Amino acid sequence: MMLKYLTPLPLFFTSVLAQSALSYPSFPNVSTLDPHQTPNYTFDELYNLTNRFLQNHMYPNNIAQSLAINSTLLSDDVLGRVDATRDYAGRELNTEYLFGLFANIALNPDAFTLLGYPINYTFTRFLGIGNVVSFAAIIEYKLPVTGTTIPQELDFWVTYNDKGEISQYDGNFRYLQWQLTSTIASIAKAQNLSSSTSLLPILHAKLANSICETATTFCNGTNLQYANQQACENHLYNETRFGDGWEWGMDTVSCRMIHQNMVPLRPDVHCEHIGPSGGGMCVDDRTYVGNLEEEYFVNTPFLAPGLEGGVH
Ligand SMILES: *[C@@H]1O[C@H](CO)[C@@H](O)[C@H](O)[C@H]1NC(C)=O
Ligand SMILES: *[C@@H]1O[C@H](CO)[C@@H](O)[C@H](O)[C@H]1NC(C)=O
Ligand SMILES: *[C@@H]1O[C@H](CO)[C@@H](O)[C@H](O)[C@H]1NC(C)=O
Ligand SMILES: *[C@@H]1O[C@H](CO)[C@@H](O)[C@H](O)[C@H]1NC(C)=O
Ligand SMILES: *[C@@H]1O[C@H](CO)[C@@H](O)[C@H](O)[C@H]1NC(C)=O
Ligand SMILES: *[C@@H]1O[C@H](CO)[C@@H](O)[C@H](O)[C@H]1NC(C)=O
Ligand SMILES: *[C@@H]1O[C@H](CO)[C@@H](O)[C@H](O)[C@H]1NC(C)=O
Ligand SMILES: *[C@@H]1O[C@H](CO)[C@@H](O)[C@H](O)[C@H]1NC(C)=O
Question: Which CATH class is domain 12-28+37-196?
Answer without folding.
Answer: alpha beta
